[in-house]
Q: What sequence folds into this?
């Protein structure tokens, strides 16, 4: 096996995928993604739903044939040397992919055999994995009797069976409670520190990406729009703070926003979002309006901003200032919030 | 190979986790073999039915020893032949109903299919044959009828045999006469002649195995359909339930795609062949198990006997199951959802089975339907089982059916493999 320069384990080059849509229209899900993932790092792909994360992972795990481009895993082309490349990868798919009527142990043993494991070696390895995912005592229970969090752990366990050098984890924390989410994040960190595993992690949640990643690529509409360490990404946006002014149900005009932008030094952006809070029967019970302001040195800009708001006839109900984070980076680059 | 086997075993394990699996595999097919067999006449006849009489009318215009010899050879060619009126007995095997047999009656009997064929041996048959001249036996059968060509073949073989023994007699006698130092008087010559002829005739008859095979080949056409009973329902229901066992693989492909395990397998270091091979092997084995269960029940409980060629029987089971497995793969590439797959495979089973003669013998349906029925692989399998079970057919006689099934399997497999996509 050969690695690229600087210990690069995964080289993705100009990868693209266009799906044939149902109505004959083509869907360009991924439009030319290039990435380098280094040996031993946790690399995150951060982007909103529909950005193309799963499609990208599917292509570099050999599940989908790219429309264009290629990826090399440990030097092996995923499109032309698929079997060799696949031996190096462990995949944890976004959706649980297990046989529900088989037990946890049977699932693990079966998938282990697909990596040419067998006999005592397989038994021992399955024991280890069960221990690692903390399900030794439930190993003989059927998957369908498991809670969502337990299923997730088995789903991860399958990806670890053959001690892969590289692990893909596609949104492994979606749909589980905070306790299990914590557990998954700790697992990822342990895999890196204890086993030297390289991890490609995707998520639409900036908090977890921020916590675990060595390097991050932000993906939106099938394209990488920024990449680097957390520090590098924040620097790219000039370290702007975000100030949230809650305004309740009040209607805010574009003229009022323009006034805010004009009259306070350091403000680069001011946008208004209204969100209706619905109760039973879909009746609107409240309206939550927020003005988001981007400003350098937000704390200093706050007093003049509140003054300007008053002059612009905006009633501010409460104020929150946030230091720059990935959310801010994404907002800055796309003009949209990550969670939409 | 180990991965293929691992995939197959895993699939079988999942299949046997399904509730109702044993009901579908044992209880229902076994009950149906009994009920359908009973409905098809098993209650009326012995469960191991005798092969039916094949009535052949003979107008012997020659009435010589040679024509008698010929008819004897014909009887020997197939024990089910009843040469009428000569072979009539107290039970009226010839179905003459007391009427006097003559050319006009023979004509009527041929038309209404009481007799399947009419042989007209002209006067002078014996003397012409002895003189080495061409002889002519008029063979007629009703073209509309099930017109079993095996009768014609038996007639031809008997004529050839007779001719061959006469040739042997002439050649042998001539050779003896020209042999140096051998002089024979008239009486000795005659004795030699008849000796050679009878030996030749015996020798030729001893090769009867060849003739018997020819005779049983087209024997799928019988005069007495419905007497099959359990011998018909057992292979019929077994074949239908093989479809019930194998077709759900098309649904299982969708289920696996939906639960993501198929995609997961694709990200693992296995080839497409190993993946498809393992999945199809599992269903193939399940199909063979289904056959074994129903056949075992038929043999042990219903008293069905499966003929004398276990290899031919096994091969028929194998190619039919293969064919259904390949068809399943082809279907899986055409269907879009689990619900659609369930509906289509159910419909297909309930069409292909009766169409192919799994519910009742194809002999009782109109010609066009019988012809149409042979688009169904079931029809070819049933042809083979019928030949083996009812007519003691051998591998040689059922090979054409096995060949057709293998061909159907190959076409479906090629189609399925070419179209199969995981995405
Ligand atoms: N099989 C498919 N056929 C058509 N469109 C698809 C298919 N898979 C994904 N897409 C589309 O491609 C885009 C990217 O999807 P995906 O990679 O799943 O995004 P993410 O994982 O970032 O949420 C979406 O617009 C999605 O609707
Ligand atoms: Mg996704």
A:
């Amino acid at each position: 096996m050969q690695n690229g320069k600087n210990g690069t384990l995964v080289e993705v080059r100009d990868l693209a995928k266009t799906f044939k849509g149902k109505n004959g229209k083509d869907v360009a899900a991924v439009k030319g993604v290039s990435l380098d993932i280094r040996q031993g790092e946790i690399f995150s792909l951060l982007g909103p739903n529909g950005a193309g994360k799963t499609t990208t992972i599917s292509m570099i795990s050999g599940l989908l044939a790219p429309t264009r481009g290629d990826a090399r895993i440990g030097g092996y082309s995923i499109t032309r040397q698929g079997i060799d490349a696949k031996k190096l990868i462990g995949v944890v798919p976004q959706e649980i992919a297990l046989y529900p009527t088989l037990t946890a142990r049977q699932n693990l043993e079966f998938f282990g055999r697909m990596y040419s494991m067998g006999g005592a070696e397989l038994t021992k390895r399955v024991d280890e994995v069960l221990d690692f995912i903390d399900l030794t005592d439930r190993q003989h229970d059927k998957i369908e009797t498991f809670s969502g969090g337990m299923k997730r752990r088995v789903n991860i366990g399958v990806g670890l069976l053959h001690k892969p050098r590289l692990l893909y984890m596609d949104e492994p924390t979606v749909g589980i409670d905070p306790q299990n989410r914590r557990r998954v994040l700790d697992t990822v960190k342990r895999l890196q520190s204890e086993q030297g595993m390289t991890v490609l992690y995707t998520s639409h949640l900036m908090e977890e990406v921020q916590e675990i990643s060595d390097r991050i690529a932000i993906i939106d509409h099938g394209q990488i729009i920024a990449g680097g360490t957390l520090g590098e990404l924040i620097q790219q946006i000039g370290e702007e703070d975000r100030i949230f002014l809650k305004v309740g149900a009040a209607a805010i005009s574009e003229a009022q926003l323009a006034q805010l932008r004009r009259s306070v030094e350091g403000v680069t952006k001011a946008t208004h979002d209204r969100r209706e809070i619905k109760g039973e029967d879909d009746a609107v019970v409240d309206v939550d309006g927020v003005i988001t302001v981007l400003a350098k040195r937000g704390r200093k800009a706050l007093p003049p901003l509140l003054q300007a708001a008053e002059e612009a006839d905006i009633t501010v109900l409460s104020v929150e200032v946030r230091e720059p984070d990935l959310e801010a980076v994404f907002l800055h680059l796309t003009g949209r919030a990550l969670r939409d | 190979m180990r991965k293929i086997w691992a995939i197959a075993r895993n699939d079988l394990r999942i299949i046997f986790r399904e509730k109702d699996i044993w009901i579908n595999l044992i209880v229902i097919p076994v009950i149906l073999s009994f009920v359908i067999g009973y409905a098809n006449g098993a209650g009326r006849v012995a469960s191991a039915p005798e092969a039916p009489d094949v009535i052949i009318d003979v107008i012997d215009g020659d009435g010589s020893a040679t024509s008698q010899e010929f008819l004897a050879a014909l009887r020997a060619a197939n024990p089910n032949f009843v040469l009428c009126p000569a072979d009539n007995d107290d039970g009226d095997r010839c179905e003459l109903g007391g009427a006097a047999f003559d050319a006009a009656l023979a004509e009527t009997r041929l038309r209404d299919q009481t007799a399947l064929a009419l042989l007209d041996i002209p006067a002078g048959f014996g003397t012409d044959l002895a003189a080495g001249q061409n002889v002519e036996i008029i063979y007629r059968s009703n073209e509309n009828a099930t017109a079993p060509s095996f009768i014609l073949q038996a007639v031809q073989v008997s004529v050839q045999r007779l001719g061959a023994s006469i040739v042997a007699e002439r050649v042998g006698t001539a050779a003896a006469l020209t042999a140096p130092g051998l002089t024979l008087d008239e009486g000795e010559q005659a004795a030699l002649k008849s000796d050679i002829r009878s030996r030749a005739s015996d020798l030729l008859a001893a090769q009867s195995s060849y003739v018997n095979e020819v005779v049983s080949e087209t024997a799928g056409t019988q005069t007495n359909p419905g007497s099959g009973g359990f011998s018909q329902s057992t292979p019929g229901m077994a074949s239908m339930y093989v479809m019930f066992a194998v077709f759900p693989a098309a649904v299982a492909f969708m289920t696996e795609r939906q639960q993501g395990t198929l995609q997961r397998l694709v990200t693992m270091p296995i080839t497409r062949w190993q993946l498809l091979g393992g999945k199809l092997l599992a269903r193939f084995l399940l199909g063979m198990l289904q056959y074994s269960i129903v056949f075992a029940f038929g043999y042990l409980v219903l008293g069905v006997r499966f003929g004398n060629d276990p290899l031919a029987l096994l091969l028929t089971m194998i190619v039919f199951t293969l064919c259904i497995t390949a068809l399943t793969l082809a279907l899986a590439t055409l269907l879009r959802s689990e619900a659609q797959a369930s509906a289509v495979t159910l419909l297909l089973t309930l069409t292909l089975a009766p169409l192919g003669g799994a519910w009742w013998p194809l002999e009782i349906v109109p010609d066009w339907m019988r012809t149409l029925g042979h688009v169904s692989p079931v029809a070819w399998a049933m042809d083979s089982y019928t030949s083996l079970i009812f007519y003691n057919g051998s591998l040689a006689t059922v090979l054409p059916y096995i060949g057709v099934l293998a061909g159907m399997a190959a076409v479906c497999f090629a189609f399925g493999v070419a179209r199969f996509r995981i995405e």
Notes: Chain B has two domains: 2-44+226-419, 54-206.
